[in-house]
Amino acid sequence: MHYKQLQKISGAANDARSGDRAKGGRELHALGRHLLVELHGCHPDTLKKVDVVKDILVGAARACGATIVDVAFHEFNPFGVSGVVVIAESHLSIHTWPEYRYAAVDIFTCGDVIKPERAVSYVASRFRCKAPSVVEMKRGLIPGMTGKLPHKVAIDEKLGEAVADAAQELSLVH
Amino acid sequence: MHYKQLQKISGAANDARSGDRAKGGRELHALGRHLLVELHGCHPDTLKKVDVVKDILVGAARACGATIVDVAFHEFNPFGVSGVVVIAESHLSIHTWPEYRYAAVDIFTCGDVIKPERAVSYVASRFRCKAPSVVEMKRGLIPGMTGKLPHKVAIDEKLGEAVADAAQELSLVH
Fold first, then answer.
1. Which of A85, A173, B46, B114 is buried most deeply by CB count within 10 Å?
2. Contact residues, chain B, for A86 at CB < 8 Å
3. What is the pTM of this model?
């Protein structure tokens, strides 16, 4: 797997060479991790049908331990599926181009519990992509923020599953 | 606005300095543009309520000329909204942290018609963010692909709007 880690720090705090420490010694903590996954060379049959693509992205959300809140998938004629799995810890999205054997997948997570790398491995395997390429962006770098980050944990209304989580700090309103 | 353009090219074709031309002279054409927008210093009242955040992201989709296919938004207790607008040309997503006056917005578009920069200006204005920071990633760089890129244009079932587009090449199945 080709993996690149980039940092997204806005304004004067931008110093990609300094890790999570900005100029002047202030520590920066990211609210989220955003993995941009390029899947080239996929099996085209896996990219065409909305039910298959939805099953794979929902499976990826489960594989990384996410709490599914909502799903929205659409298939287009003659080619392609677009879809999103909203999770309590942010979202997974996908857009497929079967004609190019290509899918663009995003995995945006917050909190320490979720392991987005597992979702990458899962989608690469299901789409039969041998060489997934991943860029990681840090999102929401807040100067001076310390300690464990809260993440949204929810009751999955749509799928009718009650989700229990001992670390629950937030609950779904709508 | 702080704007940075990065390129996402997988494997051996990766050469960010060479523009859209990979090593060896092959031309690369991206299927999509992906803008990662960091909004710090927002007015917290604009980040708290699902109806407000949904209205802003749907407005952003319209501002850039996108065709809305689906929306999925959720509000969490005590803080935060997550939501996605699936568009025929890919998607817009948002996650808000009112306690940090911060929102992470993604605008993923394909095709030449959509102007995602307009969506960036729109969300920054509505959230009262004075200094949005944007990183652009090219998604789906396909060696040798030439000509105008097809994009998905759809009938918006959910909102009951029939969308006409002379450049229509794809239509919604599900």
1. A85
2. 72, 74, 82-84
3. 0.79
